[in-house]
Amino acid sequence: GGGSWWLAGDGDEAGEAGASGAARARRHGATAYDYQLAHRREIDKYLHSIAVKRVYYPNYEKVVELGRSALGRETLGYDLNKDFEVHVLTIRLPCRSSSLIRKLCNRVEALRQLAFSPHFIDYRGADEDGIAEPAPGEEPFGPQGAVLHFFEHVPVAMRLTELVAKYGTLSGTQYVMRVWCRSLLTALMDILYMCTLRLAAVPTVHNVHIADDGLRILLFDLEWLSDRPQGKSYHTSLEDELVKAFGRMVFYMLTATDPINAADPHAMPSIPLEPFLRGILRCCLHTARRPRLVDLINHPFFHDAATFADADVAGEYRALIHRDGPPL
Q1: How many CA atoms lie within 13 A of 44 on its CB side?
Q2: Does residue 206 contact residue 164 with C-beta atoms inside 8 Å?
Q3: What was the pLDDT predicted at 324?
Q4: How far is CA 197 from CA 81, 105, 274, in A?
Q5: pTM score, whole prediction
Q6: What are all long-range contacts of 259-266, with beta carbons under 8 Å and residues at least 24 apart?
Q7: Which residue from 52, 53, 56, 54 is spatially nearest to 135, judged by alpha carbons?
Q8: Which of 21, 38, 175, 269 has its CA 20 to 30 A from that of 115?
Q9: SS3 labels along the chain
Q10: CA–centroid distance for 54 within its chain
């Protein structure tokens, strides 16, 4: 989500306001409820501006299928008015699984609340009038029709787990390592400070995907539950869990191992590490009093990554995925 507004020009003041509001919330210790109360109007305005009303399928010989979920078929369509790619989830009616519908509603609401985060896809609305046409080659809808939900389609190179398995582990000397760590921290902060829904489970490396330009990560396939409890105590405990999740992701980038699955979950990586990076891992994973996310992102190792030139990061990423020979 938000991948459009921060690249867009005129007419996207709402997106800028919402994004800066998230930064203010982090600085002043506000909760996600405070953020949503202050910025719901800007969020609704932004979502209305990107909403998709109808889709079409230009290639009538073969529709690109993105997958099948428990709710229905997922295909790649195009917005009828603006001609950009749209991820389409088709739910045939009636749908008799109330639990699946509830999961979808929670997912939609979470994406709505995270609209100004560049680490989550945009929810682009739904065709709920029951007269949507099926994709070419798809069985006709029944008498009750179908509901089509539209999501942003983001070109993604690969999962982080796939990248590490194919090209080897990363190191703290690489631009991409530091940029992705910073990107992970901002994504986790967006969960903490923007979204009022509870997570069924904190993100893991299996939720992390690398954008095709190598400049940011995106979090996919998170399961959301009902609204989280209000108040500082839950906010603090969630942040503690997110910091530990971050430590596990960094550990994986360096070792291709999740410390939870290691023979000794309390062991530190045996590979040579810069002392400060080893210290960060120890603080995130093995101390009773973990640092806050904002403290981590202000550490020079992560903070300075914001100053790296995009061309340098993208060039290193291209070299990483196109190099010959065995993984490093």
Answers
A1: 6
A2: no
A3: 46
A4: 32, 11, 37
A5: 0.85
A6: 259/285
A7: 56
A8: 175
A9: CCCCCCCCCCCCHHHHHHHHHHHHHHHHCCCHHHHHHHHHHHHHHHHHHHCCCCEECCCCCCCCEEEECCCCEEEEEEECCCCCEEEEEEEECCCCCHHHHHHHHHHHHHHHHCCCCCCCCCEEEEECCCCCCCCCCCCCCCCCCEEEEEEECCCEEEEHHHHHHHHCCCCCCCHHHHHHHHHHHHHHHHHHHHCCEEECCCCCHHHEEEECCCCCEEECCCCEEEECCCCHHHHHHHHHHHHHHHHHHHHHHHHCCCHHHCCCCCCCCCCCCCHHHHHHHHHHHHCCCCCCHHHHHCCHHHHHHHHCCHHHHHHHHHHHHHCCCCCC
A10: 25
For tokens 């993100």, the residue is 203
Cα–Cα separations (whole angstroms), residue 23 to 88, 116, 146, 194: 32, 11, 39, 10
Using 50, 70 and 90 to split pLDDT, how confident is the model at 144?
confident
The residue type at 296:
L
What's the mean per-residue pLDDT of the chain? 82
Whether the per-residue pLDDT at 199 is higher than 70: the answer is yes
Pairing relation of β-strands 65-68 and 156-159? unpaired
**Cβ partners under 8 Å of residue 52, min gap 6:** 79, 80, 86, 124, 125, 150
Q: Is the pLDDT of residue 123 over 90?
A: yes
The most distant pair of C-alpha atoms in the chain lies apart, rounded to whole Å, by: 65
Write out pLDDT tens, residues 4-63.
Answer: 322 222 334 445 555 555 565 555 557 899 999 999 999 999 999 999 988 888 766 577
pLDDT at 260: 72
Give the separation between CA 22 and CA 116, rounded to whole angstroms. 9
Structure tokens at 151: 């999501």
The distance in angstroms from the start CA to the end CA of the chain is: 33
State how far the alpha carbon of 222 is from the alpha carbons of 16, 61, 83, 163, 274, in Å.
Answer: 25, 33, 28, 20, 32
